[in-house]
Q: What sequence folds into this?
């Protein structure tokens, strides 16, 4: 089932087209965005300008034609702040219906907040955290507090980049006096909401929307960080956002567009978005913000799927975001999920029982677990070089909930789950830090042994027991039936782990006593 969601925003009109897999699971097929700026001047004149009015209609009509061409079953639409406040907003929606056949829904700020939370939950692994989410749009900023289960608070603030732009006569540099007035304006409108947020409390701050993602990416690049393949789940420090914003405030729009990560279409108001984001983070006492690349349109899709689950192919429900996305990948590439869960269990037993040797933490343990669960997805392409195929798939896909760093390290682990050992002769491995190279050696060694101990793919090896001495690690293997083949395979594939841990490794089968 294919769905399209069109988000008629104050700054941009977005469309995503997805292939629905199940409730809370979909694959994005296409993304479209046009910065129409329907809200330009709206908050001063209460009118959508003639040019933006016609451009918006043309963009939506084109989106609908495109959706029809790719075989979309249902198009969902929603309009936000500018349409709500413009006197000709209803006329715009009426023309959308007459020209495209769509019936857009004008949603409230509260509904917008709920949909944004749905999107964030599906893109960021919240765990037990209570998240404060800021979504800075053109006409409003949504402040939301929620966790994996509940929406705890939401407020739509009349603060947005185009609304703030209407306060200035031009798009040039912003002087210190004007900047102080802008900060005071933001504080006056946001203070009551911030007070409520502080009472409720939160564990982390997440930012979504184009303005925040642009600021985050540009701030990271200005601070000397590497370019991200995906901004999702990446964290940006407040000090870096402040540094970027102070630079942007000094210059005119044309020069702002010269900053890496900032497009010409955002250059007119991005500095104001920077001031707004800085003030919000300072007011709540946050020193960093996690970026999320999903927003209202993804929330619209998720909301539709929750309401129409009977129309979508069933898929096992996993409450944890990362498990859900990894399982979705396994399903897509016909991987044996049950077998890989068994391999993962063996690998984690080895990890836990050798922890005093490697001293790794939950971060590395999770890298090992997800690598084990997905190590063989490359078989879908071909058996030959399947380890490299697996690496390439995960690098291309970047499942939701994982950072660029995590995805890259998982990809390298999957590449080294068999065949050639990690070596600095390999370019990708050589580029890693010394600490990451050692980590890959240890974790790939653990993964190789775990895979070997399920050589027959029958799950006969049930548990492991490691005994450590100064020079040797003895691994006792408990299972059912004859385990000669599993033990042979493990002895054959132990070299990477033995070298990484600087131990001789021995295997023996433990006696299996029948239960009385």
A:
């Amino acid at each position: 089932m294919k769905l399209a969601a069109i988000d008629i925003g104050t700054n941009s009109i977005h469309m995503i087209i997805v292939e629905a897999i199940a409730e809370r699971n979909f694959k994005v097929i296409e993304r479209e965005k046009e910065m129409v700026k329907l809200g330009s001047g709206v908050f001063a004149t209460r009118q959508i300008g003639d040019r933006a009015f016609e451009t918006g209609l043309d963009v939506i009509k084109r989106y609908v034609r495109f959706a029809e061409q790719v075989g979309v079953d249902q198009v969902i639409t929603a309009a936000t702040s500018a349409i709500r406040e413009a006197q000709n907003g209803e006329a715009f929606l009426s023309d959308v219906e007459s020209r495209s056949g769509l019936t857009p829904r004008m949603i409230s700020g509260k509904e917008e907040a709920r949909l944004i939370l749905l999107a964030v939950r599906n893109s960021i692994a919240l765990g037990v955290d209570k998240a404060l989410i800021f979504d800075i749009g053109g006409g409003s900023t949504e402040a939301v507090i929620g966790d994996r289960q509940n929406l705890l608070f939401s407020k739509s603030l009349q603060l947005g980049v185009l609304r703030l732009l209407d306060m200035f006569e031009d798009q040039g540099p912003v002087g210190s006096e004007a900047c102080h007035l802008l900060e005071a304006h933001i504080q006056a409108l946001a203070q009551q909401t911030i007070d409520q947020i502080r009472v409720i409390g939160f564990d982390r701050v997440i930012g979504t929307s184009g303005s925040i993602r642009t600021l985050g990416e540009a701030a990271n690049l200005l601070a000397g960080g590497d370019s991200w393949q995906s901004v999702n789940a990446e964290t940006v420090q407040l000090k870096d956002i402040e540094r970027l914003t102070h630079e942007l405030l000094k210059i005119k729009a044309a020069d702002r567009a010269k900053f890496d990560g900032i497009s010409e279409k955002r250059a007119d108001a991005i500095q104001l978005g920077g001031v707004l984001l800085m003030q919000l983070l300072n007011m709540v006492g946050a020193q960093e913000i996690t970026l999320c690349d999903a927003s209202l349109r993804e929330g619209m899709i998720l909301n539709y799927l929750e309401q129409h689950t009977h129309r979508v192919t069933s898929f096992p429900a996993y409450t944890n975001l990362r498990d859900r996305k990894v399982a979705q990948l396994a399903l897509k590439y016909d991987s044996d999920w049950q077998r890989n869960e068994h391999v993962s269990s063996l690998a984690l037993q080895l990890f836990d029982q050798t922890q005093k040797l490697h001293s790794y933490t939950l971060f590395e343990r999770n890298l090992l677990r997800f690598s084990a669960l997905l190590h063989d997805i490359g078989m879908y392409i071909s058996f030959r070089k399947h380890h490299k195929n697996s690496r390439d798939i995960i690098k291309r896909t970047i499942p939701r909930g994982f950072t660029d760093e995590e995805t890259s390290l998982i990809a390298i682990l999957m590449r080294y789950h068999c065949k050639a050992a990690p070596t600095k002769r390999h370019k990708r491995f050589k580029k890693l830090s010394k600490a990451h190279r050692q980590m890959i050696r240890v974790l790939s060694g653990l993964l190789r042994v775990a895979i070997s101990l399920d050589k027959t793919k029958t799950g006969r090896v049930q548990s492991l027991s490691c005994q450590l001495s100064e020079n040797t690690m003895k691994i006792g293997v408990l299972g059912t039936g004859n385990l000669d083949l599993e033990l042979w395979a493990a002895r054959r594939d132990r070299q990477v782990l033995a070298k990484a841990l600087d131990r001789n490794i021995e295997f023996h089968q433990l006696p299996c006593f029948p239960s009385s």
Notes: The chain has a mean pLDDT of 91. DSSP finds 22 helices and 14 strands in the chain. The two ends are 53 Å apart (CA to CA).
